[in-house]
Amino acid sequence: YPSEFLLQKITEDNQIPVHLHVSVSLQYVAGLKGYALVEFFHGNIAEVENEELRHLMWSSVLFYKTPNLEVMACVLLSTKAIYFVLDDSFIHADEHQSDFWNQDNSDCDNSSFHLSCCFVLKLNDLQSVNVGLFDQYFRITGHSANHIVTCLTRDSYNTHTFIQQLMAVLSLLARTPSPEPVDKDFYSEFGSKTTGKMENYELIHSSRVKFIYPNEEEIGDLAFLVAERMHGLTNLQSLNILLYALAFQVNHVEGSTQNTSSLQPKTLILTSSDLFLFDEDYISYPLPEFAKEPPKRDKYQLADGRRIRDLDRVLMGYQTYPQALTFVFDDVQNQDLMQNLTLDHFGE
């Protein structure tokens, strides 16, 4: 340890997504390569001497205590814990965070000193991992509200790779074995006899950590929600969700000295007739076991919706991934004017 393959892999993965802004301290981390990265991990982050760094990933993260604040993090997976290296601005961004972080950085005001805070979730405290729709994100759940983090990878490959590495590391944990399970058939394993509904697919790892994957009913619920927003659609069977993707909506900042733009996280849903943007709660659902009341907002809130037939043109940028798309719609004041006229003129 570390092997040449591991050094090459973490060096390749140590790249900040170009469209996201990070602090100077995280830019320093992203500049480390090979042995320097491993030495940085052992000298500044690792909590015990004999733990090994196994995987590195850059991702946006959300904390359960601050569901509206998405922040960039360098996620480091070791044989003992998952570390989230965050820049210092995150602590000061939310006043309610003071009890969460319990940090006093008043002596670090020197501008040449760039501080990062590190949130640690020990693997022994890990209880479950919820994988989001189409592997666009995953939520890691510990034993309290302070130990729930969602990684918004927006990339099925990154999600899949991290889950595989996490399962491999969990296999090394020495936990007391769970009692021998009673043999069950498929229906008693995944079905509820009272409702007849299929539960979310659960994989219980040998370390007793649950890996929970969404089932087809989640897509069905989403399709029903979308159908409610589409006027005049009576047949739910004809509604097909063609694409579900976590994206950003670009809002250009007026009057700024540079041509800057702010990125608003959105869930993009494309059907055969409409294009929707939703504000989605990625951290509160499904409810953790200790939650005493439902979240303050719904899982999906409609932000914008347009008909494909009103789409005039699509402009594509020439930059590398992630690609920017601009959808230009016809600005019709009353979209259903012709339909209403027809109904009025020819009676019922």
From TrEMBL:
<dbReference type="InterPro" id="IPR053015">
    <property type="entry name" value="PH_domain-containing_M2"/>
</dbReference>
<dbReference type="InterPro" id="IPR057288">
    <property type="entry name" value="PH_PLEKHM2"/>
</dbReference>
<keyword id="KW-0963">Cytoplasm</keyword>
<feature type="domain" description="PLEKHM2 PH">
    <location>
        <begin position="114"/>
        <end position="178"/>
    </location>
</feature>
<dbReference type="GO" id="GO:0019894">
    <property type="term" value="F:kinesin binding"/>
</dbReference>
<dbReference type="GO" id="GO:0032880">
    <property type="term" value="P:regulation of protein localization"/>
</dbReference>
<dbReference type="GO" id="GO:0010008">
    <property type="term" value="C:endosome membrane"/>
</dbReference>
<feature type="domain" description="Nischarin C-terminal PH">
    <location>
        <begin position="241"/>
        <end position="347"/>
    </location>
</feature>
<dbReference type="Pfam" id="PF23142">
    <property type="entry name" value="PH_PLEKHM2"/>
</dbReference>
<dbReference type="Pfam" id="PF25625">
    <property type="entry name" value="PH_NISCH_C"/>
</dbReference>
<protein>
    <submittedName>
        <fullName>NISCH protein</fullName>
    </submittedName>
</protein>
<dbReference type="InterPro" id="IPR057714">
    <property type="entry name" value="PH_NISCH_C"/>
</dbReference>
<dbReference type="GO" id="GO:0007030">
    <property type="term" value="P:Golgi organization"/>
</dbReference>
<dbReference type="GO" id="GO:0032418">
    <property type="term" value="P:lysosome localization"/>
</dbReference>
